[in-house]
Amino acid sequence: MEIKNVFVVGSGLMGGGIAQVSATAGYEVKMHDVEEKFTAKGLQAVEGSLGKFLSKEKITQEQHDTALANLSTTTDLADASDADLVVEAVFENLDVKKEVFGKLDGICPAHTILATNTSAIPISSIAAATGRPDRVVGTHFFSPVPLMRLCEIIRGLQTSEETMAAAEAWAQSVGKETVRVLKDHAGFIANRLYLPMGCEAARMLEAGVATPEDIDKAMRKGYNLPMGPLELADMTGIDVLMNACTAIYNDTGDPKFYPPPLMRRMVAAGLLGRKTGKGYYDYSSGKQESYWEL
Asked: Per-residue pLDDT tens for 27-41?
């Protein structure tokens, strides 16, 4: 099927990024959120990101202007009624996502593909809220969306091959390299591998085995990773990772995904990483600095 109109539910970091790459690729995009103050903030972030790409000559002035012209905002979910593809990027909570998908199922025409950007929740659990599970698919982008190249395309228990192929072609058209997740297992590929490492790094820090700097350095220098697990947690958001771990643990019962005490306490204290100025590192000065005393 041909995709022309894309509707993004959620104007935060992920939703805004998905809207940006879609608009840049030439799609007509509507970005939704529940209040105008959120859509305004999301649009401002997209404008800032496109401006940086322009200043670094990653895109032309024409591409910059066209992308902004292709993007509009709305607070009315009913505006998804003409969408060929809807991408949900709301809070990582199954009940919240099911509520959104249930509403979209009643709004969107029969041909519309309903995609979720969930980082860990099984696709079939979300699809159960609709009467079109064959047209529900996972499209898991990575943050920041305009820079990160990967998108996981996840098959739910009843996702059709036509839906998989259309979602994959769209993700590739917005500049992403894709991998297919053929079985609907919580965590998919990337998070199923990374999250246990992130949890173990938090446990090592809590136990006083090593500082954040040395834990990250060991993985960078010993395994040639571009970032250590604690640095990556701060960039992604410790709350985002905790929610993903919880989703996988709830689905599988596998204890290696149970969020460790330190991670849970940091989320409760609002120490979420770069976005709050402090996580495993302190960013209040504009630089990544140590503050742990072991």
From this structure: 999 999 999 999 999
pLDDT digits (tens, 9 = 90+) for 90-137: 999 999 999 999 999 999 999 999 999 999 999 999 999 999 999 999
Homologous superfamily of 192-276: N-(1-d-carboxylethyl)-l-norvaline Dehydrogenase; domain 2 (1.10.1040.10)
Give me the catalytic one of 92, 152, 168, 231: 152
Beta bridge partners, 290, equal none
Please name the residue ranges forming H helices in the chain.
Answer: 13-24, 36-55, 61-70, 94-107, 123-127, 161-173, 190-206, 212-223, 229-236, 238-252, 261-268
pTM of the model: 0.93
Of 22, 70, 191, 243, which residue is the catalytic one? 191
User: Catalytic: 140?
Assistant: yes
CATH architecture type of domain 5-181: 3-Layer(aba) Sandwich (3.40)
Q: Choosing from 140, 168, 231, 243, which is the catalytic residue?
A: 140
- Whether the pLDDT of residue 293 is over 90: the answer is no
**Active site includes 49?**
no
